[in-house]
């Protein structure tokens, strides 16, 4: 079989043109191979020569001398080369296939040169093929060096064969070097791709999702058949393991070897060491012979030939380990793969750290929710238990005939009545606070026009404002000011702000409620000309049971829950609340709520 068109049976370029050369074919390698084929053609007395490299089931022409354009890059199936090799005569480093043994199956990949053979037994025939099979150290056929069309028209004699043999040795060296470069290039590419995939996967919120996003690529890039990842708990010992394999969904009993590998992980992370472990490579740092034997037996039992043991961590802390697995007949792990795996161990260590932090945060949130629920239950129980005796006390006070009482008794009854009223206010505020703070309480918003809520609140607060000689005004837009919310909660929110403003405004003062739309928000402000609030008080004003340190404010009754309730309701509605105030200059409370979109007329709900 020949190695070029116009001179034998090497595969023609495809209809779409010759195949692209593999990435290893850098200029230096290509030049060396080109010099080789030109030298063998010139010094051995042949018109043409070529080198073919085996990859992906075909032999590809990677260098050639005195051939037609487009020949370099053409391919021949591996099976065709192997059949010709089986038919060939052994000429030492070279093989010869005479024209009368050429198989018909190779003709589809052949081109017969238009030459007339000479007379004699040693004449070269157009279908003769002389080639040197190039094997690696394991005996695998990796390439072919071929020559064609001797200039004298004769089969090579001993002298020419000696020259050809020397060139076959050089060709083998260059071919194996080329394959080594190709393999190195591919491993670098795959390792780089694996690191990129893992780092991209780190955006996933949980460790399981991180591994799901990158495990298949990770296994493929490292030419592995599976992997498992073990993450340590916050104490560095308890473990959780995630298993992935191309061939099986049944996880091996990893817990059998945890007592060995957990300790190794901590040591190897401190040393930044990645261990390529197998039966032939069991001598690893910190691994006693008896433990190494246990690991070898474990790998044999689950059908693995070798593993790459990669510690995971962040900073000084070891957070787990990754194990990449290979079959018994697979190649050894390379230094490049070990370096890449250590980088990935750092990245996956970050994923474990993030998952651990998220788990802790979820635990804290869950505990806070349980505490919140417990507090709500306590407050509800306490409020309802206090309501009954308070109702009985208030009813008995009302039954008293005030006219028949002497002045001292009358004052005592009036004081008791005022106390009952204050206690009732505290209980109602406590129950409201518990209600709006309950994490289990559903929030089912509807469209609410805040203008209508303001009108209702002003009507309810009018009597109190008149009693305190405070003027109440509203500055409302003509168009509906729609928000999504619970009408009764929004009513309570604005009632608390209005009653606070009226309560802390001296006679002759003024309270103004304004509503305005700002982009996607509806902003409500309640402004008063009252006594104001100091900067230090403003920092704590929305805390439960906080009362102002201003003496003028302490003389006015309150539960310390009004603004805390406002803050909870605003938070449930996805809004914000803020205060702008100064002692002696009044206060402006600002509530910003998301505007309701897609409003239908029948959706509009009054706060009645």
Strand fraction: 15-25%
Q: What is the global morphology?
A: elongated
Q: What is the C-alpha radius of gyration, as a whole number of Å?
A: 44 Å
Structural class: alpha+beta
**Strand order across the biggest sheet?**
3-2-1-7-6-5-4
Profile the largest sheet: 7 strands, antiparallel
**Uncertain runs:** 1-19, 599-608
Mean pLDDT: 80
How many β-strands, per DSSP? 19
What's the layout of helices and strands?
Blueprint: H1 27-44, E1 46-55, E2 58-65, E3 75-77, H2 78-87, E4 89-91, E5 94-97, E6 129-135, E7 141-150, H3 158-201, H4 207-221, E8 226-232, E9 239-245, H5 258-271, E10 275-278, H6 289-301, E11 306-314, E12 317-326, H7 335-399, H8 407-437, E13 446-449, H9 450-467, E14 471-475, E15 482-485, H10 487-503, E16 510-518, E17 521-528, H11 535-538, H12 551-554, H13 562-572, E18 576-581, E19 587-594
Parallel strand pairs: 14-16
Antiparallel strand pairs: 1-2, 1-7, 2-3, 4-5, 5-6, 6-7, 8-9, 8-12, 10-11, 11-12, 13-15, 16-17, 17-19, 18-19
Helix pairs in contact: 1-3, 3-4, 3-7, 7-8, 8-13, 9-10, 10-13
Question: Explain this structure to me?
Answer:
By secondary structure, this protein is α+β, with helices and mostly antiparallel strands. The chain contains 13 helices and 19 strands. The strands form 4 sheets. A 7-stranded antiparallel sheet has the order 3-2-1-7-6-5-4. Strands 9-8-12-11-10 form a 5-stranded antiparallel sheet, with helices on both faces. It has a 5-stranded mixed sheet with strand order 14-16-17-19-18. A hairpin with a 2-residue loop joins β11 (306-314) and β12. α7 (335-399) packs antiparallel against α8 (407-437), α8 (407-437) runs parallel beside α13 and α10 (487-503) packs antiparallel against α13. The longest helix has 65 residues, at 335-399. Mean pLDDT is 80; it is low at 1-19 and 599-608.
